[in-house]
Amino acid sequence: MKIVYLDKDTKELAQRYDQLSDSQFAHGLRMIELLGIKPADCVLDIGCGTGKLTSYVSDITGPKGKVIGIDPLASRIEIAKKRAKANLFFEVGGSDDLYRFADHSFDCVYLNSVFHWIEKKEDTLREIKRILKKNGKLGLTTGDKDQKNPIRLIIENAIIKILGYKPQEEVFSPFSLSSQDIKRTIERSGLSITLFQINEDSFYSDSAEQILEFFLSSSFGNFLSQIPQEYKPQITEEIKKGLERLRTPKGIERKHSVVTVICKKP
């Protein structure tokens, strides 16, 4: 059974995520540019985390616009609320809570590094379609389940070395999809895909510990949660050794593919 535990998050993880999420912020900036958000637009950020990207978008919409960020993790909304402005609001809520918004409420809805955490994707997309205005846009960034980037391989090999097998559940997030399944899922919702691209990105971290902290904080405590506790220290050490092999003069390189999708409500 695939499970994501929201209660694994802590205030410390939320704060660390706010400090370490530059790569996800960068993906979001690219998506926001492609969405073409305008002054006076009404925008919803689903899974806003600590609100860095939401705050950036509120500067684009300006005082005549309105931006709402929702996230199911109260500790992250607590940090996000410190960024609140006259046109920027934050609420605890997730993809299952979109019923709170009226039909045709938003010019734009987006999910940045969130789609792979949503179990009921088609239900969520139908609700997004409902709350979008005519010709409104949806943007999302997510990973490709089938990508074999160096860090993913290091983590999978470390698990296999210590456990002797690979867990059936996805290592990073249980509801990840392949790029083709992402496309098919969106098309079934009735939204029209206007852009679908996959970018190969590289970011650099100072240490292996920092990378593991990013994975733990960005997964709100769920990283390696399917691993029996007694094996985690050994697996963690194996992962650190592997990560050090990726060190360059700039730091440890984190290569990965990012799927960016822009959709329009017909």
Describe the structure.
- With 266 residues, this protein is an alpha/beta fold.
- It has a single domain, classed as Vaccinia Virus protein VP39 (Rossmann fold), CATH 3.40.50.150.
- It is 38% helix and 24% strand.
- Strands 1, 2, 3, 4, 5, 6, 7 and 8 form an eight-stranded mixed β-sheet that branches.
- Helix 3 links the parallel strand 1 and strand 2.
- It is globular.
- The mean pLDDT is 95.
* Largest β-sheet summary: 8 strands, mixed
The stretches of 5 or more residues where confidence is low (pLDDT under 50) are none
Q: CATH homologous superfamily?
A: Vaccinia Virus protein VP39
Q: Which overall shape is indicated by the principal axes computed on the Cα atoms? A: globular
Share of residues in helices: 25-40%
State the secondary-structure class.
alpha/beta
Rg of Cα set: 18 Å
GO molecular function, one term: S-adenosylmethionine-dependent methyltransferase activity
Keywords: Ubiquinone
Pfam family, one: Methyltransf_11
Organism: Methylacidiphilum caldifontis
Helix and strand arrangement:
Layout: H1 11-20, H2 22-35, E1 42-46, H3 52-61, E2 66-71, H4 74-80, E3 88-92, E4 106-112, H5 121-131, E5 132-142, H6 150-163, H7 179-188, E6 192-205, H8 208-218, H9 232-244, E7 247-248, E8 251-264
Parallel strand pairs: 1-2, 1-4, 2-3, 4-5
Antiparallel strand pairs: 5-8, 6-8, 7-8
Helix pairs in contact: 1-8, 6-9
